[in-house]
Amino acid sequence: MCRLAHVTEITECTQEDKRSALERALHSRTFARSEQLRAFLRFVCEAEMRGAGGDLTEYVIGVEVLGRPEGYSPAEDSSVRTRAYELRQKLEKLYSTELQAEVIRIVVPKGAYAPQYVKLAAISHTDPPVETADVGSASPAVAVQDPLQRRTWMLVVGALAACLLGAALTFVGLRAVALRAAAAVDPILTEAWGPLAKPGSDVLLCAATPLHLVVGPAGHEAYGSPNYPAPPEAYPLFRQHRPLEPGTKLGLIFTNNVLGVGTMNAVVVAVNTLRAMGTSYQILPERVATISVLRGRNAILFGAPVDSEAITRILATAPLTVDYEPSVKEFVVRDRANGRMLVPKKDTNGDFVEVYGLVTVLSTRDSDRGRLGMVVFSGITSAGTHGAAEFFSSPRALRSLKSILTKEGNHGFPAAYQVVIKCTFSNMLLLAYEYDSHKVLQVE
Questions:
Q1: Are both 201 and 88 inside the same structural domain?
Q2: Residue-wise pLDDT tens digits, 200-247
Q3: Measured between alpha carbons, how far apart are the two ends of the chain, in Å?
Q4: Element containing residue 331 per DSSP (H, E)
Q5: 413 lies in the same domain as 266
Q6: Are residues 365 and 283 in the same domain?
Q7: What is the pTM of this model?
Q8: Domain check: are 110 and 9 in the same one?
Q9: Torsion angle of alpha carbons 396, 397, 399, 404, nearest 10°?
Q10: Would 137 be classed as within a structural domain?
Q11: Least enclosed by CB within 10 Å: which of 34, 95, 123, 384?
């Protein structure tokens, strides 16, 4: 019998091998929502492929990838080291879960930025031959058996053995995959997610669907909404990204079926985290999953209070919330306890460049199944919601948060708390996120 074992070695790869490994990593689900880490990985890999790996320094990456100004001090700005750590974590996750069968893998060694290519090589080991009984010792009935019958019997036995072996290997393989996936989950995630991370928790993911006016053909009626004439300024805006024949009239209809890009990304981040922890889940829009459905369920809610009755009620008595501030004509993160107000920033074109996310954790409800957990990912624009989900799914961010909480005398993660996340935002996409502040809630 031949057994296969995997060994790891640093190997010389062709440019085609390297390019193929890079493209598979960049287009993976693991890196799908990490725009900055994809840029980091592409930059260092392409530098190595053109023979410039030795020129990769913290300063060069800071300027070329992270957009730091010329002359900045890496000693005072640790962003490159932080992103390099996150990149190594992402690569480990990629090859331990999504691309387990990948033969050539990208590794960024600690203390360096030039990537290496690791090859998994299969080595076969042959077992010694199995001793068989002497033909002469066979029983007379076997000895006189017809050769054709013997061959037929051997084929049947061989086929049965192959089926049993295939089933056993499949079971062992699936079991190994499950064990590797479980082992790949950072313990800080299961600690922070609490009841949501337990087997059988069956988490409900409930996404708020803001009320929208959708521009489309005049006269088109859908979702039970009448069609209203579109104003003149809708026409040039519509033509920016959509075809519109001359003379075509546009109309407006109301819909509750639209998700912001950031909210959609936040749901994807939460799903990936739950799947990595082996947790089952269900995704429903809030207009289907009303607030009564949350009773007796572990749940994650996505969206701003203005778009969600459930989130409005949950944050009604919390010290931190997201609401509209007339004086600045913007939605803000409001600290009711001290009157502090976090206002988003815009560029000269009026586009958002900095928004805030809000994580609210409430592991305070009891049920027949034990303690239930609820997490609310909210924020200013859907990018803030996305940033909140990314923060709460990041082992690095959670370890940093736990350290802050511990210094305040908390033992691990409290049963109820809120965290404000500062998010860098551009063109509907989250670029980066970082801790801003937090509140520990008193549980009665």
A1: no
A2: 788 999 999 888 889 988 888 776 788 899 998 988 888 888 888 888
A3: 65
A4: strand 330-335
A5: yes
A6: yes
A7: 0.60
A8: yes
A9: 150
A10: no
A11: 123
Q: Is residue 144 part of a domain?
A: no
The pLDDT, as a whole number, for residue 368 is 66
DSSP3 helix / strand / coil % (the chain, rounded to 5): 40, 25, 35
- Find how far residue 363's CA is from the centre of its chain: 22
Alpha-carbon gap, residue 76 to 59, rounded angstroms:
11
Together in a domain, 46 and 90: yes
The reply to whether 313 and 363 lie within a common domain is yes
Residues in the chain with pLDDT values less than 50: 1-8, 122-153, 155-157, 159, 162-183
Report the alpha-carbon distance of residue 199 to residue 394 in Å, rounded: 20
Can you give the residue range of the structural domain that contains 325? 194-209+259-440
Pairing mode of beta strands 370-379, 352-367 = antiparallel
How far is residue 67's CA from residue 60's CA, in Å, rounded to a whole number?
Answer: 10
User: Residue 300: what residue type?
Assistant: I
Residue 379: strand pairing partners: 357
Do residues 297 and 372 touch, judged by C-beta distance below 8 A? yes
Domain count along the chain: 4
Looking at the structure, tell me whether residues 292 and 346 fall in a common domain. yes
Residue 255's nearest CA partner among 224, 230, 284, 229 is 224
Tokens for 308? 């969600």
